Amino acid sequence: MDSYDLIILGGGLAGMCAAVEAGEQGANILLLEKQDELGGSTVLSSGYMAFAGTNMQEKEGILDSTESLLADMVEVGGGVNEPSLVEAYGSQQLETYQWLVDHGVEFRSLEAVSGHSVPRGHIIDPHQAIQSLYKRVKQLPNVQICFNCPASRLQKNGTGRIDTVLYQADGEERKAVAAKGVLIASGGFAKSEELLGQFAPQLKGALRIGGAGNQGDGIRMAWEHGAWVKDLPYLNGTYGFHPSAAGKLKSQGLAFYKGAIMVNQLGKRFVNESISYKLLGKAAFEQPEQISYQVWDQTVMEKGVFDDPLYDFELLKRRRLLYKAETLEELADCIDVPADVLEDTIYRYNQSVQNGVDPDFGRKALTHNYGKPTAIEKAPFYAFESTVAMLATYAGVALNAKAQVLNPYGEPIPGLYAAGEVTGGFHGAGYMTGSSLGKAAVFGRIGVWAAMEQNAVV
Ligand SMILES: Cc1cc2nc3c(=O)[nH]c(=O)nc-3n(C[C@H](O)[C@H](O)[C@H](O)COP(=O)(O)OP(=O)(O)OC[C@H]3O[C@@H](n4cnc5c(N)ncnc54)[C@H](O)[C@@H]3O)c2cc1C
């Protein structure tokens, strides 16, 4: 049986950050990846990472701070985020940003998205990020990656410490021993109908988009050894995908964060459009037949951002996913909503923008506390039918600020660490864009530091 210091399960952002960090410390590492390539959901993502106080923000004159980032995160999370995890993120976020830059990860631009009071979505090309970490791993002879090697079970040694991983390789079951522990970084369960059916039956009609290997294997392995789970009641999909997206990317548009409104099939608004797109998804699924549209005008159209995964509205137009009309009446006809109701909805919304008070839903900003809504008045007008996709599960094993997996009594399970989407408790009841890739990078490294402090007990 092969022996290592640390065994990492999964080669997405969390696993790759952990592998590089541990490898650079000289530890002997095995990373098991279920698929034949790295990246999981990370490489499908829009690439937004939530960091505050960076040199990129400074260059653009954006004032931000760790305190402000954490305050937004807790507000968006409904105050039920685990404080120690939020604090751990705060203590490492800026250093992690710099560490990624130092390891060749390129940050392209900044945008404000869900939950941001200032533009702090630092956008990476996730393929480039994973490849640059992989390049570093290949320079480290002490880090071995095994592709097509799904981990299946964990075992404890005689002292009750998790130290053995059972996995498949070349059609055989193998075992490897980890003297300092096992770090689960196997992502969420957006691709497990069984777990989604069990924990999020309300999302039956949501599209499924996520890494093919993300079937909750890590959660099951941790459960078997007594892990507690957190945030399951807050599982929500992400709003803003065209219903035809089904697995295809580039069919998403978040025009509501640039000033669009959302209407249902009755032509009525139903929510404050500036809140987390997870909560927008929940509200959209409560509408008649779960049908809803984003509606905007030329002013919003011109705020689109070329080549941005969330804001490239011209791309949606080129892909014929938008309805465009010179009048609201014509637009209503295109989407089959009563024209007089749609006109009235927009009249009322425009009044609220003018008065600075939205008596219906309390919208004050474009996204979270950032940006001023604008009236929908400049032709042409656009409508984008939008639905909910289950992209990322954000509920998972409980952990402490050292990324140690906890049992239901809040005690660490010896030898077991976790990072990334497999973990719960960090986001709470809502979701700030960029905090998932952010937590993968931050806690991937924290887990390594904690594991390396352990004395080898085999
Ligand atoms: C379309 C889309 C857009 C998104 N956009 C954003 C965004 O802009 N910002 C943001 O913060 N988040 C975003 N997310 C969420 C984010 O991408 C994920 O939460 C994050 O990438 C998770 O990283 P991870 O390393 O934990 O997991 P992953 O990147 O999913 O990696 C997990 C890896 O583990 C492997 N694995 C699974 N089971 C096993 C096993 N048994 N043995 C070995 N390996 C296993 C998987 O194959 C996979 O490679 C988005 C997600 C999607 C799908």
Task: Work out the radius of gyration.
Answer: 23 Å
CATH topology of the largest domain: FAD/NAD(P)-binding domain
Described by its quaternary structure, the protein is single chain
How does the helix and strand content classify structurally? alpha/beta
Low-confidence stretches: none
How many individual domains? 2
Q: Kindly report the average pLDDT value.
A: 95
List cofactors, ions and other ligands.
flavin-adenine dinucleotide
Shape, principal axes of CA atoms: elongated
Annotated CATH homologous superfamily of the largest domain:
FAD/NAD(P)-binding domain
> Care to count the β-strands?
19
Query: Which band does the percent of strand residues land in?
Result: 15-25%
The CATH architecture name of the largest domain reads 3-Layer(bba) Sandwich
Largest sheet: 8 strands, mixed
How many H/I helices? 13
Q: What percent of the residues sit in helical stretches (DSSP H or I)?
A: 25-40%
Please report the first level of CATH classification, the CATH class of the largest domain: Alpha Beta
What distance lies between the first and last C-alpha atoms, to the nearest angstrom? 13 Å
Please, could you describe this protein's structure?
The mean pLDDT is 95. The protein starts with a strand and ends in a 5-residue tail after the last helix. α1 packs parallel to α5, α1 (13-24) packs parallel to α13 (435-453) and α11 (328-335) packs across α12 (339-355). It has helices at 13-24, 55-59, 66-76, 83-102, 126-138, 193-199, 217-224, 277-285, 298-301, 313-318, 328-335, 339-355, 435-453; strands at 2-9, 29-32, 48-50, 107-111, 121-124, 143-146, 151-156, 162-169, 172-184, 207-208, 229-230, 238-241, 261-264, 292-297, 323-325, 381-390, 396-397, 404-406, 412-418. The chain folds into two domains: 2-234 and 391-453, FAD/NAD(P)-binding domain, CATH 3.50.50; 239-390, Flavocytochrome C3, Chain A, domain 1, CATH 3.90.700.10. 56% of the residues are buried. The protein is of the alpha/beta class and 458 residues long. The strands form four sheets. Strands 1, 2, 6, 7, 8, 9, 18 and 19 form an eight-stranded mixed sheet that branches. Strands 10, 12, 13, 14, 15 and 16 form a six-stranded mixed sheet that branches. A three-stranded antiparallel sheet has the order 3-5-4. It has 13 helices and 19 strands. Flavin-adenine dinucleotide (FAD) binds at residues 9-15, 32-35, 39-42, 44-48, 150-151, 185-187, 209-211, 213-214, 217, 391-392, 420-421, 433-438, 440. Flavin-adenine dinucleotide is lined by residues 9-15, 32-35, 39-42, 44-48, 150-151, 185-187, 209-211, 213-214, 217, 391-392, 420-421, 433-438, 440.
